[in-house]
Structure formats: structure tokens, C-alpha cells
Design brief:
single chain, 465 residues, alpha+beta, Rossmann fold, tt1808, chain A, Umud Fragment, subunit A, twelve-stranded mixed sheet, six-stranded parallel sheet, 7 helices, 26 strands, 17% helix
């Protein structure tokens, strides 16, 4: 994580407080504080001692590291060592890079300084804390904000830029170029990417009756309660670097007038305060879970036969043109050109052949990445002859339209005016339509009797709540 402070003393106080909390997980000897200059370490040493934490400022590499206490060491002296927790303090632009080497070009000096910081950063095996208390080192800006967390116990990354043409909820934005909007758009993305909240549960400019006035919460995360959406987390944003004090009072006021709201969050993109319903500061907000969704939400699993990959698709049955796709890597909202309406048909049999019925009233917009440009349709299964292939009664099979198949493909086959779903096996001039259930017999046909109308490429299965 990385934090910026207004003074060297505030920076040292933070290090002492954080180490005090870390000692519930780590031994003192597993923690080290490093800096470019001894003077910077002396300030941290003073704060550690005031907090009653045993520490040692090492001025010689020969000093033993066996003592079970917190070590303080210059960044030049740490090469070859490793600690579970490393604090690098004083990452100010006037300190690192410090370009004053004699007979060395400025560019080479900066490369040397960058390597020095890299060595310090890679000494941490589990947790790395970095901080500054003046103009931050230019090296901090070269680190992707996605790797810099706001705190050690939350998932939020440091503020990063989002292009205005990628802003969400554009119809609600009053000033697209305001500094606060920059922070709000970052926070919206973090809530979706790091905490997996679907856009359907997020609202901006959420109205709250605040005494005799109506206020607007910058971001409201909603959850389902008794079949309706209610506020769960109120988020207030401030301009970058402007602090969180005023916003904290604001969010407390809003929470006091919203009985369902359980958490409050205030941030300016560089610092963040999170409180619970009793206004106590806590480390993090809860991540999204399925029970937060309203009851109109439907959840389907989708199995892609070619890639063997499994997805989860969540949609509001009243808003089928927006879906949430979940994978092991996280969730994303798909809408517009990311989806395609796939024709759906009722009544292909996974049992005895029956007439293939007409189009279903069910409407499915599926992610185009599942279709990959192929001409497809969905068939609703009736019967249980394919249960051992995982295809159950009332499932939907995604069929690619084609008239040929490979051996062992699952196919939709038209037999005169009837259709069935079976596994295709060719034996010379004979075709066997094999069930995946021992209580059914194979259907044997001559080659010209079996008219393939498509090959199964995926399975859409409704999840039972």
C-alpha cells in the first residue's frame, strides 16, 4: 500500500500505529522500516518508542538481526535481506531520486536510484508499505495505481484516471470535468472490479430526506430486502487530496436518515474512511454476494463445450438486455452490442422424438463472446434421456446451425417431422443416436434418414435458489 502524509511526524505516527496492529499477526523481528536517510528513521524510532514498541536503529550491517525487535535500516543496507513486512518511508522527490553522483550522467543516476528503490520493495515477502510526506517521488507515479492499495486491509487501489468518454451514469452527471467526478468514477469502477458489485445495484445522486431538506448521496450501493432495493452503503467523494473530514459528517447525516443503511464510506482517492452503522471506523466494506440481489433476478450457469469453461449469468427477468457475467476472475456487466438476442425454441425432446415446436416466449440476450459470430439458437429440453451428459429436463441447449457433425457430438436431429437431441455416432452407412441414460434405447437410422439441424456448443441451466 502507499499513503501520503502532510508531515514527517504524521507519517511516523502512522507507521507506529500500523505496526502496533500488525504485531497481532507478525513477530517484531519479521518487520523492518527502511528509508534513504538516518534522519528519517530517527523520527520513526521516536514514535515506535512512544508507542512502547521495541525497536533498533541499525547503523552497521554487522549488527545482529537475531534480536526479536523491529529493525530500522537504510535502504542501501538492506540488499540480500528479506522480511515479511517492509515499510519504506520518506519517498519524497527530493530524497529519491537523489541525483548527485559525480561523473555520472543524470539519466544513469536516475536508473541507479530506481534500482535502489526496486531492491527495497522486493525485500518484502508478504506486505509492503510505502509512504511520503512531501512531494511524492516521481517513481511512485510510474507504479500502476492498481498495485497501490489505499490501506493494508481493503481492496481499494489508489486513485487512477478514467477517460470521460468511459464515465458511467453519464445522464446523472452535472459536471463531467469536476475533480469530484474523477474520484466518483474511480470509486464506481473499484466497487465493480474489486468488490464485484453489479451495476444494477449501484445508484448515483441517490436522494435522501435529510431533516427538512433532500440531499443526494454520491454513490449508493443497494441490496434486496423484502423484495425491494434499499440503501446498504452510502459513499461520498471529495476532490483528490482535499481530505475526508467534511465528507464524514455528511455521510453520517445521510445514514442517520436511512434506517437500512449499514455502512458509510468517504474518500478523496488518496485516503478513505469506512464506518459501520454505529459510526465506528472499520477496515473494509463487504463484497457483493448473491443474497443482495432482488428476487426478480435469475441466475443461469453456462457451460461452453469447446473451451470447457463455466460461466454464471445473472439477469433481471424484467431487464433481459443487461446481464452480469461471472467467472473465477470476477464479474462484469454486459449490455448493448456486447449482447445478442438468440432465438429460443420450445420442445426438442431428450427422450422420444417429438415435434419441434415454434419459437418460445422466453428471450435470452447472450454475450457475443459465447457465440463467437456463429449462427445459433437455443432449444428447451423436454425429457431425461441426456441426463448423464448433464442435460436435464427444462435446460436450454445452445445449438450452432449446421448440417454436419463429428462423431460423439451432441446434435439436434430432425427425423421426418420430428426432432430429438442425442449423441451422434456414425457406423458406416448407419447412424446411431445415442441417449445418455441407460433406460433409453439408441435410435438407429440410415444415413439419409438423419437430418442434422445443429450441433450443441453449450448448455444454459437455470440455478435453483
Amino acid at each position: 500500500m502507499y499513503k501520503h502524509f502532510s508531515s514527517e511526524k504524521n507519517e511516523a505516527e502512522f507507521v507506529a500505529r500500523e505496526i502496533g496492529m500488525l504485531l497481532s499477526e507478525y513477530l517484531p523481528g519479521e518487520i523492518i522500516v527502511i528509508a534513504r536517510q538516518y534522519r528519517q528513521l530517527e523520527m520513526v524510532q521516536l514514535q515506535l518508542e512512544e508507542h512502547g514498541l521495541a525497536c533498533k536503529l541499525l547503523k552497521e550491517r554487522e549488527v545482529t538481526f537475531d534480536d526479536d525487535c523491529i529493525k530500522l535500516l537504510t535502504i542501501h543496507s538492506i540488499k540480500g535481506l528479506e522480511f515479511k513486512v517492509v515499510f519504506i518511508v520518506g519517498l519524497n522527490d527530493s530524497v529519491i531520486p537523489y541525483c548527485s553522483y559525480i561523473d555520472m550522467e543524470e539519466g544513469m543516476q536516475e536508473i541507479t536510484e530506481r534500482k535502489l528503490l526496486y531492491v527495497g520493495m522486493t525485500r518484502a515477502s508478504e506486505r509492503l508499505y510505502m509512504s511520503s510526506c512531501a512531494t511524492p517521488s516521481r517513481f511512485i507515479n510510474s507504479i500502476s495505481p492498481g498495485y497501490l492499495r489505499l490501506s493494508g486491509n481493503s481492496r481499494f487501489s489508489h486513485l487512477y484516471n478514467i477517460r470521460p468518454d468511459e464515465y458511467q451514469f453519464g445522464e446523472k452527471i452535472l459536471d463531467i470535468y469536476s475533480k469530484e467526478e474523477k474520484v466518483r468514477q474511480w470509486l464506481l469502477k473499484e466497487l465493480q472490479d474489486k468488490y464485484n458489485y453489479p451495476r444494477a445495484l449501484l445508484a448515483v445522486e441517490y436522494k435522501v430526506n435529510n431533516m427538512s431538506r433532500t440531499g443526494s448521496v454520491d454513490i449508493c450501493i443497494q441490496v434486496n430486502r423484502d423484495n425491494r432495493l434499499v440503501p446498504y452503503i452510502f459513499c461520498e467523494v471529495k476532490a483528490p487530496g482535499s481530505g475526508t473530514g467534511q465528507g464524514l459528517d455528511q455521510v453520517k447525516s445521510y445514514m442517520s436518515n436511512a434506517k437500512h443503511c449499514q455502512y458509510g464510506l468517504v474518500t478523496d482517492g488518496t485516503e478513505m474512511i469506512i464506518i459501520d452503522a454505529d459510526f465506528r471506523q472499520i477496515d473494509d466494506i463487504p463484497a457483493f454476494s448473491q443474497h443482495m440481489l432482488p428476487s426478480t433476478m435469475e441466475k443461469y450457469s453456462f457451460q461452453c463445450y469447446s473451451s470447457k469453461q463455466k460461466y454464471m449469468m445473472v439477469r433481471d427477468c424484467n431487464l433481459s438486455q443487461e446481464v452480469i457475467v461471472e467467472t473465477a476472475a470476477g464479474s462484469e456487466v454486459c449490455s448493448g452490442t456486447e449482447l445478442k438476442l438468440v432465438p429460443t425454441y420450445e420442445g426438442i425432446a431428450a427422450g422420444q422424438p417429438i415435434y419441434m415446436q415454434g419459437k418460445s416466449e422466453a428471450r435470452f440476450y447472450l454475450p457475443v463472446q459465447w457465440l463467437r459470430g456463429r449462427d445459433c439458437y437455443l432449444l428447451k429440453v423436454q425429457g431425461d434421456s441426456m441426463v448423464d451428459a448433464g442435460i436435464d429436463d427444462q435446460d436450454y441447449v445452445l445449438i450452432q446451425q449446421q448440417s454436419t457433425a463429428q462423431n460423439r457430438d451432441i446434435v439436434a436431429v430432425a427425423i421426418e417431422d420430428e426432432a430429438t437431441l442425442k449423441r451422434f455416432v456414425r457406423m458406416g452407412d448407419t447412424v446411431l443416436l445415442m441417449p445418455e441414460n441407460p433406460k433409453y434405447e439408441p435410435i438407429q437410422l440410415s444415413d439419409n434418414q438423419a437430418r442434422i439441424v445443429g450441433v450443441a456448443i453449450g448448455l444454459l441451466k437455470k440455478e435453483i435458489k
